Amino acid sequence: MAKSLGHFSSLVSFTKTQLSRQCARLFFRTSVRRTVMRAVPSILSPKARDFSLPNPSWGDEMMRLYNHYNQQGGVDPEGGGEQGGRWTRLPSYNRSLKYAIGGVYLSKIIQSKARLFTRNIQQAGAAFEYVVFYTNDKQRCVCVLQAGHLLEGPPGHVHGGAIATMIDTVTGSHASLLCAPVMTANLNVNYRSPIPLGSTVLIESTLGEQEGRKMFVSCKISSSDGSKLHTEATALFVSVGVSHLLRG
Ligand SMILES: CCCCCCCCCCCC(=O)SCCNC(=O)CCNC(=O)[C@H](O)C(C)(C)COP(=O)(O)OP(=O)(O)OC[C@H]1O[C@@H](n2cnc3c(N)ncnc32)[C@H](O)[C@@H]1OP(=O)(O)O
């Protein structure tokens, strides 16, 4: 009896081991397949969503400014003239496509669920709705931002961290246009007047000095008609090698 119970328990434990191995294999195969099936189209598909294009959540002021800057040959409202006075829209995706296509990051990105912080809210209009334009000489960028209801800090106004995030994003995108990849080494923010939740504002980024790997950028946020200054900032970006990003 004891012997047959011993056989039975060995059989159970053998079966359990086999089953758990099979389960592990099946789980591994299924989860890898799921991950690959979900990730590959969004990384490799030529139809990755460009978040810088209008969507139905964009209000009248957002659309007016988008059309203003997006017009072919639209001119700099501050009179930049021919040189650097025309604006080009910067496409915006929620993944680091550039490096994924290069291959170096492919496996790392497929296995992660990484998404760009400012582009990961599913509900259109709820958080950061923005589009960045840059001048031909890449000395200036302007971002039109519509700040959604999930960005609240003080009641009825935008959170200071969300403001800093947008400054980092715009100045970082600006610096990346000139020398990618870059990392923010320093960011100084002066909050001058609160930004009403739901409002549309302009974030302007201007390239300052460049010293070797260092790029100094200044930035200001103002109301869409330019009458009110909300925020001023300066940032330092340092260009890094891809290996710096892989260090973890
Ligand atoms: C299209 C794409 C869309 C992309 C759209 C998305 C854009 C979003 C952009 C977001 C960007 C981020 O948030 S990045 C995430 C936040 N940042 C980080 O986590 C960075 C963490 N820090 C680091 O990794 C490192 O400290 C670095 C990379 C900043 C610098 O390290 P390093 O490469 O070893 O260089 P290092 O020799 O230390 O410094 C180089 C030079 O910079 C100076 N330096 C370094 N740090 C500082 C500092 N805080 N303040 C002053 N100066 C500094 C040094 O004195 C030196 O000057 P000299 O002696 O040469 O004169």
Automatic annotation (TrEMBL):
<keyword id="KW-0472">Membrane</keyword>
<dbReference type="GO" id="GO:0006631">
    <property type="term" value="P:fatty acid metabolic process"/>
</dbReference>
<dbReference type="GO" id="GO:0016787">
    <property type="term" value="F:hydrolase activity"/>
</dbReference>
<dbReference type="GO" id="GO:0005758">
    <property type="term" value="C:mitochondrial intermembrane space"/>
</dbReference>
<keyword id="KW-0966">Cell projection</keyword>
<dbReference type="InterPro" id="IPR029069">
    <property type="entry name" value="HotDog_dom_sf"/>
</dbReference>
<keyword id="KW-0809">Transit peptide</keyword>
<dbReference type="GO" id="GO:0006915">
    <property type="term" value="P:apoptotic process"/>
</dbReference>
<keyword id="KW-0496">Mitochondrion</keyword>
<protein>
    <recommendedName>
        <fullName>Acyl-coenzyme A thioesterase THEM4</fullName>
        <ecNumber>3.1.2.2</ecNumber>
    </recommendedName>
</protein>
<keyword id="KW-1003">Cell membrane</keyword>
<keyword id="KW-0276">Fatty acid metabolism</keyword>
<dbReference type="InterPro" id="IPR006683">
    <property type="entry name" value="Thioestr_dom"/>
</dbReference>
<keyword id="KW-0378">Hydrolase</keyword>
<keyword id="KW-0999">Mitochondrion inner membrane</keyword>
<dbReference type="Pfam" id="PF03061">
    <property type="entry name" value="4HBT"/>
</dbReference>
<dbReference type="GO" id="GO:0032587">
    <property type="term" value="C:ruffle membrane"/>
</dbReference>
<keyword id="KW-0963">Cytoplasm</keyword>
<dbReference type="GO" id="GO:0005743">
    <property type="term" value="C:mitochondrial inner membrane"/>
</dbReference>
<dbReference type="InterPro" id="IPR052365">
    <property type="entry name" value="THEM4/THEM5_acyl-CoA_thioest"/>
</dbReference>
<feature type="domain" description="Thioesterase">
    <location>
        <begin position="156"/>
        <end position="228"/>
    </location>
</feature>
<keyword id="KW-0053">Apoptosis</keyword>
<keyword id="KW-0443">Lipid metabolism</keyword>
<comment type="similarity">
    <text>Belongs to the THEM4/THEM5 thioesterase family.</text>
</comment>
